[in-house]
Amino acid sequence: MKRAIAVAAILLTMAIFSRPAFPADGPIAAVRTEPLGKRELASTITGYGTVGTDPRNTTTINFPYAVQITRLPVILGEVVRKGAPLVEVSVSPSDAMGFALARSNLEFARAELARVQSMADQQLATRSRLDQAKKNVIDAERALAVQRKLGTDKGSTLISAPFAGVISMVNAAPGDRVPAGTTVVQLARQDRLRVVVGIEPEEMGRIRPGMPVRVSSVFDERVIIAGRVEKVFGMINPQTRLVDVSVALSPGQSSALVAGTRVKGVITLNRRKEYAVPRSALLKDAGGAYLFVVRNGRAHRVAVTPGVESGGMVAVNGRIAPGERVVVLGNYELRNGMEVREEGK
After folding, report:
1. Is 4 exposed, middle or buried (0-12, 13-18, 19+ CB in 10 A)?
2. CA dist 27 to 63, 187, 293, 298, 334, Å?
3. Residue 112 belongs to a domain with what CATH number?
4. pTM score, two decimals?
5. Interval 10-61: pLDDT, tens
6. Residue 2: inside a domain
7. How far apart are CA 195 and CA 156, in angstroms?
8. Does one domain contain both 184 and 163?
9. Which of 149, 283, 290, 326 has the smallest count of CB within 10 Å of its CB?
10. CA–CA distances in Å: residue 305 to residues 68, 192, 287, 330
11. Within this chain, do residues 206 and 293 fall inside the same structural domain, yes or no?
């Protein structure tokens, strides 16, 4: 008896829910539909960062000896052409004195060698004394060669740009005395910039070198520069609390960006074809995500599980067949079983 009652209750419930929620003479909603089909969707990670110079395409101007800056015609951020003057320096008095002393020592050593050679010819000097005089000349020649290699023999030196680029560092001013090895000017290629974007630490394990990246200015996303992940850093940047990802831009494209620009980088992890619907077709309530499909002139609610979103399309998985008409416009006013009129039909 109890079993018969239970079966009757189940049949009654199925009958109630299988009936349309609206009568045949109920309201008719106008909707726009699209057939469900597969689309190629990209799984992406977005990071934000800045455009910077690439150290591998940067030249640093310094000197192996102390100098005084006599002319510095460039300023930070200036764009210069190939061959443009960058800095002119003169040798410091102490280094100039070092060259003069080395040259004087060589002249003295050569004169002493000539004198000892003359004495040796007259058997007034020993063989060892002559050998020592020859060695002194060789040592003096080497010392002078070192001074010339250092550049201390030059009164003034003008350095020009070896390539067209942007001045990324100026570390002196006219009149300054600069110690040996100090960077005076740094020049970076403007057509070979590098982008560094920050990502959430939990995402770093999904990114690999070589993955494609779409780079655009945060202020103007119309210009998109293609690039690839160059390296993923293995620690959190203490300033941003994010993990840095270095992006190498495609050759010749970085001229559309300027060093220091804030950019957005969209890293593509993978691409695959999935059943997808426009973002407008997907709705959510307390019961979860769902959409409406049109069957026999009526709207039917179908629960779905959303997946990857790309280019305004969202991957969906649920009890929906390929080719079914999915409501993409006018769905907010729909109820399950409501009669609908599709645009264009």
Report:
1. exposed
2. 86, 72, 17, 11, 10
3. 1.10.287
4. 0.56
5. 444 444 444 444 455 567 889 999 999 999 888 889 999 998 877 778 899 9
6. no
7. 38
8. yes
9. 149
10. 71, 44, 12, 21
11. no
Over the stretch 62-77, which tens digit does the pLDDT of each residue have?
Answer: 988 788 899 999 999 8
Tokens 């003008």 sit at which residue? 158
Alpha-helix residue ranges (DSSP H) falling in the chain = 2-18, 93-121, 127-150
Q: Following CA atoms 194, 199, 205, 206 in sequence, which dihedral angle do they give, to the nearest 10 degrees? A: -80
Beta strand 28-35 with 339-342: parallel, antiparallel or unpaired?
Answer: parallel
Listing DSSP states for 85-103 in one string gives EEEEEEE-HHHHHHHHHHH
285 Cβ contact list (under 8 Å, min separation 6) = none
**Closest alpha carbon to 280 in 330, 340, 339:** 330
Residues 285 and 338 in one domain: yes
Residue 111 belongs to some domain of the structure: yes
142 and 286 together in one domain = no
In whole angstroms, what is the distance from residue 97 CA to residue 152 CA? 9
At position 128, the amino acid (one-letter code) is S
**Is the distance from CB of 77 to CB of 167 less than 8 angstroms?**
yes
Domain extent for 137: 93-150
Bridge pairing between strands 283-285 and 212-217: unpaired
Based on the fold, state whether residues 65 and 184 are members of the same structural domain: yes
- CATH number, residue 83: 2.40.50.100
Report how far residue 202's alpha carbon sits from residue 164's, in angstroms, rounded to the nearest whole number: 40
Question: Is the same domain home to 67 and 171?
Answer: yes
CATH number of the domain encompassing residue 248: 2.40.30.170
Residue 253 in any domain: the answer is: yes
